[in-house]
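Fill in residues.
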């Protein structure tokens, strides 16, 4: 997810519910005034998109799904708070490396037990999409739930529409990116 470490100007409610904090307590960024300033970022859990949560459940019945996020150790608690379940939860705070490092994508693939060339990766941060492609992932820019769903259908996944019906079997593949 973008913005967590890239200095985004988006308000907290428009960003993922995470923030990178230094692991080293002696770091200047670990001083009390900095921790106090980060408090609202850590406590803002945003509001999940109910359609995406439903879509995640449908996709998980067909394929394993993981989340790779530049979050603190709060990611698992945030997902649990919202009742969101992934097959693999891979916060950079646990991996020890952040996106867009190629090591983050390789390590995530290794943790999932799936080669990078066999993984599809979606992110709304172009830099992260490019980095995932650099390690051989099929990486695409996330541009909303509808385009995401159409793209997955184009790859053969039978997914419901927002109204619950399955799309016709013949849907043209959406362009990459």
């Amino acid at each position: 997810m973008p913005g967590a470490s890239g200095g985004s100007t988006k308000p907290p409610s428009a960003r993922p519910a995470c923030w990178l904090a230094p692991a080293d307590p002696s770091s200047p960024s670990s001083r009390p005034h900095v921790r106090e300033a980060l408090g609202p970022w850590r406590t803002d859990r945003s509001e999940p998109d109910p359609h995406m949560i439903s879509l995640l459940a449908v996709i998980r019945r067909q394929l394993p799904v993981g989340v790779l996020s530049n979050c603190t150790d709060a990611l698992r608690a945030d997902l649990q708070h919202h009742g969101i379940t992934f097959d693999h939860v891979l916060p950079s705070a646990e991996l020890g490396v952040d996106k867009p490092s190629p090591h983050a994508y390789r390590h995530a693939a290794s943790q999932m037990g799936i080669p990078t060339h066999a993984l599809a990766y979606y992110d709304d941060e172009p830099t992260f999409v490019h980095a995932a492609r650099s390690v051989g992932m099929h990486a695409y820019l996330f541009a909303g739930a509808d385009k995401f769903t159409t793209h997955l259908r184009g790859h053969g996944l039978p997914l419901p529409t927002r109204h619950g019906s399955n799309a016709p079997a013949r849907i043209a593949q959406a362009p990459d990116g």
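Strands lie at 66-69, 88-91, 120-123, 138-141.
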